[in-house]
Amino acid sequence: MVAVAAAGGGALILAGLYDADLLVALFIVFNIVLTGLVVVHSARSLNRADMKRQHAEEELGSANAERQQRATIIQSVLESIGDGVIIVGPDGKRIYNLAAKRILGIDLSGLPVTEWNQALLVFRPDQKTVLPLDEFPTARASRGETVDDMEVFVRHAGAPKGIFISASARPLRNERGESQGVIAIFRDLTTRRQAEEMQRQLAAIVQSTDDAMFSLDVGGLVTGWNAGAERLFGWTAEAVIGRNPWPPTNTPESVERRAKALRGERIDPYESEVVAKGGRLVPVIISVSQLRDPDGSVVGAAVNIRDNTASKREQEARLRLAAVVESSSDAIISKDLTGAILSWNIGAERLYGYAYFEVLGHNISMLAPPDHIDEIPEILQRIKIGERIEHFETVRRRKDGQAVDVSVTVSPIYDSKGVIVGASAIARDISERRRTEAEIRRLNTTLERRVAERTAELEAANKELEAFTYSVSHDLRAPLRAIHGFVQLLTQRHASQLDTEARRYLDRVSAGATQMARLIDDMLALSRVSGQRPEAQMVATAEVVRRAIDQLAPQMQDRAVELSVGELPACLAEPRLLEQVYVNLVGNALKYSRGRQPSRIEIGCQSDAKSGETVFFIKDNGVGFDMRYADKLFGVFQRLHRAEEFEGTGVGLAIVHRIIARHGGRVWAEAEPDKGATFYFTLGGAPAWLATAA
Amino acid sequence: MASNGSLDILIVEDNPDDLELTLLTFAEFTGTDRIQVVRDGAEALDFIFRRGEYADRDPSDQPKVILLDIKLPRVDGLEVLRQVKRDPVARTIPVVLLTSSTEERDVIEGYKLGVNSYITKPVVFKEFSAAIRSLGLYWLLVNRPPSTEAA
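^ Those are the sequences you sent over. The predicted structure of the assembly is below.
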């Protein structure tokens, strides 16, 4: 007997002509189907007993009408079977059912069956080796073999890529055991193969995906667990299958989601955190879908969990950047390469007065006043070739039409492939700076004018002073010469006519004139020091001191003077002025120590304990002075001694003071009456004029 | 005293006191009275270049030395000096700037213009007369001027 894998139903149309012999076989098939035998792709359940029963029934139904009726039924059964069925009669005639024709492409070939047969290519499962004709299932069955689940590969006009077919075949015999032909049943394996392949691929995907994927039953126990889940949670499949590894969560959202899942409602992917091995919390995106049985009832859930740590971080970074952009007081604008505005921050709203919805999509040139409109394409052109425009100072127009001075930096924006897709512009309002600059320029101009005015005034004053000095030096001295000269003539040529008293008076007149001449000379010297612009240079101080002492030689004649000069470092000074300082100070030392036997004068230098500055000093053992009057020491015409004791004009130290001050240094003295005096001075740092002259 | 004219010294001085003291000194120590006095720069130029009231002066009778004060009415001493030293004939006459000025710029300007000597008038008469005396002796006795033909 032949068992046929069958399913479904439909009208039976036999392609070939029926005859009585063939119908015997069909009748058998029909009976099997009617008795509701389970469809098994196997012929193992067939047995001898069935064959006998079939044979008995055949004998029972001998009436033509009955046969006809049965044939109709068989026909409809055959056509309703999804598997292909071929029945080969004892005379070699073949019957194909609808499924057979579809699988083997009989109708699609458009050829008569005999010719189609030639065009059908049948291979072994390796898809290359042609199956010999005597190995065809039908051929084997006709030799009495039983063929079960033989796989072949078939190609024909309707399936040029070929299909796999699983075929079974049996010989057909009557009750007498005589061969009645062959029946072959086969099905297209391709769909199943594809389904299996898809299944396999899906399984591979599930295993290989980075996402954690697992399935749960309705009780929340794990039923499946992929490699991603092992990675994300840190638990192996063995450890979690059949268990619920998570601590229970009972937030309102989770309770609601569970309820929804059980009701079979759709659950949108959501962001959450899951607890991994060791209690570690992982930010994730969770997708849940229900698993249903064939009836459609929910039997569990498939869960896909994506680790969201990186994108979370990225998102936070983006949010931070966005916050920076938004909080910036500068206008930050992005645009595409045509200049269409894509983004517009609050700074831009403030600077230009447009809200973002007023400008998005508009061209950036809307901000340029007519006389600056050409800049826009120029900037975009430079952006396109990857240039960056930095601190470009220009003018833009606000919504209210007001011009605003801005400094703009424009950079290209690249997409992930490194292609320039737009530009970002940062604009800063520099109106205030511009105003300040203008104000500074104005103030500078004013200042320059004032300086010029003051300089002119000062020059005029200097000229006047020079003229005054010049006239003093000429005109004030002339009358003194006359007084002095004629007094001399009187005393020399008319001595006999003068008594002692008269001569004494004339001496006083002469002395007065001499003193006045000295005053005039000193005053002129002082004014010259003030008027000169000293030119500093490196000076060998010892050499300067030597020259000063040479000048003072006449004052040391016929006197006991012990003069010691210590080590003196070179200094930065105007040499002639420094010499004048030494002449005046050493001159003073000589003058005020002339009563000593001997005069001791020490010239040297020391380092200031605090500042480390070089301090020059001139020390004498003269009459000294009372420190109470020290503040008068360097004043013009100030004297601490009576003229009868020590001659002088009170200008020498004023000159010293002025020279030292012009060098940026200090001068001071220490003294005690009758115990000598020490004068100290420094030459200071390098004042501006020193630095430039050096 | 080498002399081929009637004149030894031309004194250009406006201050009568200085003038008298100078003349007294010269009279006392050099013995010459062949001194011509002019009282300002313009007169000095007239004399030297024989113009105005000096137009008829004997051209051969040039002073052997000119004592020239710097600060003078009308034309100042430096201008007189400039004109003298520019003149191919007069430039051979030695010129001594005699002034109470101690201004360096006068000294420098004087030497630039080719002055032969320079002396500051001291206030003390003794020194003044000593300066005048040495000056007179030097120029009149020691330093012989080149002959006008040679110039």
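Residues 70 and 77 of chain B are 4 Å apart (CA to CA). Strands of chain B lie at 9-12, 35-38, 65-68, 95-99, 117-120.

Shout if you want it in another format.
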